[in-house]
Amino acid sequence: MKTPPFLLGATLLFWGWQTELLVWALPMALLVETSHFISTRWDFSLIDLKRIWNLCAVLFFGAGVVLYSSEEAGRVALRFTQWLPFPFFPMMLAQVYGSREKMPLTVFSWILRRSPESVLANKTLNISFVYFGVCLLAASATSQSSPLFYPCIALLIALALAANRPKRLPQIVWMILIASVSLAGHFGHQQLHALHSAVEGTLARWLVGLFSRQYNVNESRTAIGRVGRIQLSGNIVLRVRPDTGEAAPPLLRDASYDVYKQGIWRSSQNEFALAFVETNEVVNLQPEKKLNFSVHIAGYLSRGRGQLALPPGVFALSNFPGVLKTNQLAWAKVEEGPGLLDLVASYGPGKTFDGAPTDSDSHVPRSEGRTVREVVESLNLDGKTEREKLEIISRFFRDNFTYSLDITRQHTDATGQKTPLGKFLTDARSGHCEYFGTAAVLLLREAKIPARYATGYLVDDSERKGKTYVVRERDAHAWALVFRTNKNVWEDFDVTPASADRAAKFKASRWEPLRDFFSILKFYFSRWRWSKTSYSAYLKWLLIPLILFLAWRIFSSKQRKKNAMDINGSDFPWPGQDSEFYLCDKKLSDAGLGRQPHELLSQWQARLLPTVPLPESLQRIFELHRRLRFDPRSVTSEDYKILKSEVQQWLEAFDEQTKSKEPAEVK
Amino acid sequence: MFKRYLYFNYRAFSALKFWLRRRVTAAGWLVLGATLAAAALGVDTNVSLAYQTFTLLFFLMLASVFLALGPGGKNISVERILPRFGSVGEPLFYTILLRNNSGKTQRSLNLFEEMADPRPSFEEFSRAPEMDREERTVLDRAYRFDWWNRLSSRQTYARIEGQLLPDLPAGREQIFRAELMPLRRGVMRLTGVALASPDPFGLFRSLRRLPAAQSVLILPKRYSMPPFALPGAMKFQQGGVSMASSIGESEEFVALREYRPGDPLRRIHWKSFAKIGKPIVKEFQEEFFVRHALVLDTFSPQTNSEIFEEAVSVAASIAYGIRDEDSLLDLMFVGPQAFCFTSGRGVAHTEQMLEILASVQTCRDKDFSSLEHLVLEHSAQISGCICVFLEWDEPRKTFVQSLKAQNIPVSVFVVTSSKDSLALGPMADEPQHFHTLPLGKVAEELALL
Question: Which one in A206, A653, B26, B382 has a CA-CA gap of 20 to 30 Å to B175?
């Protein structure tokens, strides 16, 4: 069944209006509807239609690639749906300007082409209603709310269904029914929207309530007190490339915390300030330093959001497309960023952008107070300078502690008198970086030195691949930040021993090289996809020659047919159409000896042979023509020549016979 | 337990598929697809307006389903007039008489033929096909979906599609030419017809079932073959004239001679008896004519073998293609018992042979030697033998060898799933009479004979 006249045009205009693509929709609608006024039709063969469908597929996937590489991730699906009428338009044109009212399903499916005996392979489809549906969906994929949207879409659907109305039903009844359905739909979508808003609100509140007790972005839950082996994967999280000749910074900090309680570090500074991003995508976090280094840091952001892992003393970020927020604890939160951030961090020794110490940076929790006090007393720090205190504490950990990822029952006190951290400091004396970092912070605070707990990544020399260092998930690290009152700066204070052995303690998976290979492929693709040089813009131009080539393949060998009714639907001209025999046929017809409609070729031949000159020659002509007509593969170029010469000879003989008979008839 | 779970799942899914196929129109499928797409697109009502399209289409479908709940085609009686036979792959045309007993014209009705439920019983389903295990994947063996499909298709005799009926004026009778496409040989049982009436939006159909139980025999698929030269010379046939009243030289009169005791009275030539005054009898030549055996191999290891179906089609094509009216053709095969069915002028028609072939089944309780015995029992009368085999293994080769040893010309057709050429074996001296018919190319190979 075909769509009613002008329905497709109106739908295309509606789509163009809704999606702000009216400039395109207008000519498309005109092209589709002009077909009603033009009788000329193209005789598209099955092969042509397959090529047109291939063109549609190229446009479809091309549009997907272009949108994926140019649009924000969240908008790709909607934008892609909005564009859907474009890729399928060539097929629609092929139907409205083609001689076929319906398209064979084999055109659309490679599988059906391979199984011609299947039921579906012999079916046909008028694609106009499908295209109508695609246009409506495309028009719906827009957020621009308009009071006219629903009435228009209801009207278009009603017009399409009117063509399907059973004859038994009076028109007025049908109109009442469709009006009722439209009203119900109108009421329904209002309720649905209200329901969605209500559910969304409730769900958000519920989720906030559910997770706020367990998880907070402003806190770091350590594994202190957890028994078992710490497992971290080898997934690459960052790629660090220092400038030529420079070493990579050993630590990259992504967060710091100031409040500790029962294995959880929290941030008391939850107010963030918007950092100013200059037009050249540079963010100045603090004044430029005289001695400075720069390092490229690349990492993925989830939906454009994330926290930056930066070297100590960072003062500027360049190549930063997005919004940056910072707080007093030197957190750098990214919003509205790309999927892959590949920035250049400039850093140097000295001042960081951390805020000045507060009371919470000197606070030791009561639960750990006694043990920490005992340890500090045992270290005899009284009367020592700040530097000496740091050295003693550092030596204390280096000489008495070992690194371990296996946390056993020795780390916990069955009596409950000592906390896991207390056990670590006094008895177990082995643990992972969270133990060392936390213990160091608390000892420093007890020794009257402001300290914070920092988390981030260790940049390991063994993970250097060419000029780039890869930072894996298992390189996650924790250490202490100490405030040097004489210098008025925050410095990293890492007391975790034998860091070089640390990597060896994590067993690398045997599949890691393979995973790294795919990871690097993904990285390069992402870098291209999110690069500022929008290569994606060129993709459209790359598609054009391909489309032109396919269009040329389709239209170059086409013959127009004036009257669509004459078309017999065959895909190829039948063999033998160019046979020389038809010259004889014409001559015989002119002489009144033509083939009768009911007559077989052999019967006609038998009737002619006694009456015409050179009957043997005509017999050979018939034979060659029959082969040309029904077994063209067996006919050689030599046979063509023979047929041509035989026909010439026979025509001459026939003309002579006719001439010799004419005077006799005159007499 | 798992088998039963699978069975009921497949059964329910088949029922749903069958229900949807008849109830949902093409427009309905399109609206259903559009509704699902709009639902997916409009999940977030703040992002797109697709949820408005979704609600409209959803209410449209809801209204359609509700309006299609009632039975369609009220007060219409149906009578079906079926031909005796149909053939696989050939459209079967037949007549349906429709009478509108209601007071108003019935329009836009569709007719669906109803057939016996093709779904297998649990017992059939639970009998796992052990024979072709090596061809089946582990997943296939575990979930038996392929087995389910095979069993269902075995019972599906025809492809049925809705046929749009002409308008039926009130109180009048209409003749409708219906069409079916037979898919399998055997007895096709039609249980009734269903009259479908679309809802006002043309998305769903309401159905009214009318009982009209009938059956039609579907003959095997036949391939077109060029005239086939049967091997073999005439042989003495013991039955003589009574066996084949007008075949060969049965009426050939030789001479008159004096009566000898024991001559039958019906051979007395009464005119000569009257003229000469003593009994004279007519003397006839002995009966010689050509009699061929068409041997069909039914020893397939699989119950629903495509090879066997093709072999039956080849046998039917040969039986149907032989135009030599001066010969007899014996169809020999082994089913529950050994069969030898003779056709030819004066005995039986080819149609009867096709009827037999329509019902022939594989034999799995006997071995190939039973067919060998059957053929060799009749070897004295056979002028030539055409064998349609499912395999070309040693027992079959030995059988052909023994026929040739008795100077019986043999033509061999082997239907095979293999693409490799087969060793000729005992047919090496007559390669022109050995034909390999690969699956999927049977029609081409037969046309080239």
Answer: B26
Burial of A417 (0-12, 13-18, 19+ CB in 10 A): exposed
Point out the residues of chain A with pLDDT beneath 50.
Answer: 212-215, 500, 559-572, 664-667
Q: Which residues of A touch B89 (CB under 8 A)?
A: none
- Tell me if A403 sits within 8 A of A505, measured CB to CB: yes
Q: Are A38 and A101 in contact (CB under 8 A)?
A: no
Could you tell me if residue A306 is left (phi over 0), alpha (psi between -120 and 50 degrees) or otherwise beta? left
pTM to 2 decimals?
0.60
Enumerate the residues of chain A whose CB falls inside 8 A of the CB of residue B107: 166-168
* Distances B86 to A382, A618, B182, B204, B269 between C-alpha atoms, Å: 110, 44, 7, 32, 50
Quick one: how far is CA A8 from the chain centroid? 30
Q: Could B197 and A189 be called an inter-chain contact, meaning their C-beta atoms sit closer than 8 Å?
A: no
Q: Which helix (DSSP H) or strand (DSSP E) does residue A248 occupy?
A: none
Judged by a CB distance cut-off of 8 A, whether residue B33 touches chain A is yes
The complex's ipTM?
A: 0.71
Q: Among A261, A252, A253, which residue's Cα sits nearest to residue A222?
A: A261
Cβ–Cβ gap A142/B48 under 8 Å: yes
Long-range contacts of A499-503 (CB under 8 A, 24+ apart): A499/A403, A499/A458, A501/A403, A502/A403, A502/A433, A502/A458, A503/A460, A503/A462, A503/A463, A503/A474, A503/A475
**Inter-chain contact B63–A177, Cβ cutoff 8 Å?**
yes
Is the Cβ of A171 closer than 8 Å to some Cβ of chain B?
A: no
How many beta-carbon pairs under 8 angstroms link A with B? 125
pLDDT tens digits, B224-278: 877 766 665 555 454 444 444 444 444 556 678 888 887 888 888 899 999 988 8
Between chains, do B49 and A145 touch, taking CB under 8 Å as contact?
yes
Chain A positions in Cβ-Cβ contact with residue B34 (cut-off 8 Å): 133, 136-137
Helix axes A615-630, A601-608, angle to 10 degrees: 170
3-state secondary structure of B314: helix
Q: From CA A384, how far away is CA A156, in angstroms rounded?
A: 86
| CB-CB under 8 Å, A161 with B202 | yes
**CA nearest neighbour of A31 among A13, A45, A54:** A13
How many angstroms separate the CA atoms of A70 and A73, rounded?
9
Q: Are A490 and A314 in contact (CB under 8 A)?
A: no
Q: Does A81 touch chain B (CB under 8 A)?
A: yes
pLDDT in tens, chain B (449 residues): 778 888 899 999 999 998 898 899 989 999 999 999 999 988 888 788 999 999 999 999 999 999 888 766 678 888 999 998 898 888 899 999 989 888 888 888 889 998 888 888 888 887 765 545 556 677 777 777 877 888 888 788 888 888 888 888 888 888 889 988 898 888 888 989 998 888 889 899 988 888 888 889 999 888 887 776 666 555 545 444 444 444 444 455 667 888 888 788 888 889 999 998 888 988 765 555 677 888 888 887 766 678 888 899 998 888 887 755 566 778 888 777 777 777 765 556 777 788 888 888 888 777 888 888 888 877 777 788 888 988 888 888 888 888 888 888 888 899 888 777 788 888 888 887 888 888 878 888 887 77
Nearest to A153 among B48, B52, B58 (CB): B52
Partner-chain contact B56 A119, CB within 8 Å: no
Phi and psi angles of residue B308, each rounded to the nearest 5 degrees, phi first: -65, -40
- Which among B44, B47, B53 has CB closest to A153? B53
Partners of B88 on chain A (C-beta within 8 Å) are: none
> CA-CA distance, A298 to A278, in Å (whole number)?
20
Which run of H or E residues covers position A433?
helix A433-446
| Contact assessment for residue B413 and residue B437, using Cβ atoms and an 8 Å cutoff | yes
